[in-house]
Amino acid sequence: MPHVSPIVEKGLDTLNDVRQGKLDLSWMNSNPQGWGVKAIPRDERGLGLEDINRVGNYGVVPDGGSLHGSMAPRGSEIPEHMPSLGCYDINDKSLVWADNVAHLYDEAVARQWSSARDIPWDQLKPQREDLEKAMCQVCTSLAEIEFIAGDMPAKWLWHINHDFHEVKLFLASQIFDEARHMEVFRKRALANGGGLLRSSPDAENQLRLILEAPNFTTGSALMHILGEGFVLTLFRNGEMFSLTPVEKKIFRLCMQDEARHVAYGTMHLKYFLEKHPEREDEIHDILRRGEEATFSLNQAQDTIEARAILAGGGLEHIEDGFVKLKYLFKKQIQEYLYRLRMAGLDRSHKLAIPFELPV
Asked: Considering the entire predicted model, what is its pTM?
């Protein structure tokens, strides 16, 4: 046998012992308090994350995560010599938790869709050049910003204690959602004889605020409630910008994903503020900066012109389009403030941007 390392040699010795009947089997007596539980599916949806959290101690989420710092799943027996990986340093439940997160993960898994098979690409029709270019510019902008909503949770995911696995699973589903959104908007820009148009330096400068947020909760407030909240309202009013059944289906499917993300962010902020009311000013400050950045991003010339052309039905009707965008912006503000009130934060008298656009 060629020379092997001590690690491989130890593995071979263990394998040899087991083959010779030198069994240990102590693992069979581990975690006696967790043995004998049975998870039962509630309904035809199958065995969900919420279902397995209803049995025994497995659904008990500690306020402070286990400090062993390993990848051991919550509820398992942790040997004394378990090594710490040194990266899972978000150990306070209030910094990531939302009471709806297990439900949202179950929904996310059940409602996955494919941009290849679930969009009626065969129903695309040739469009006037101004309308197609406007749609391609909107898709370019959306493809640019969708990845930020995946990159932000990816930045924090590997810091979160494994005792909060519901949060980690949900954020992982969000990363995949956002990858699919980027994919579908890129495909729409390329699928009808147009192409990707202008990327936005302003978008890069404004969106970096999310990635540079000092902690997960402030980043979540910026992205899940403010940024994705504005996008959710946009998708809900997708008929305003749709040229064919293709865009309608894209906006509708993306909307269901965004609604989950916004729901998590809203309930996380609520949970956080209930545990840390003294940090309310910190949230107000980051949202003020975020509101200014979001307003600047949404009123950038290439963004607002393209949306107005689509909303109006052509370049010659762009003024009608601006009227519709005024209505959309007002709804975005109203829904944003409503979500903050649901989370226990009132910004109606602190809003850093107009409540509505000028005529």
From this structure: 0.94
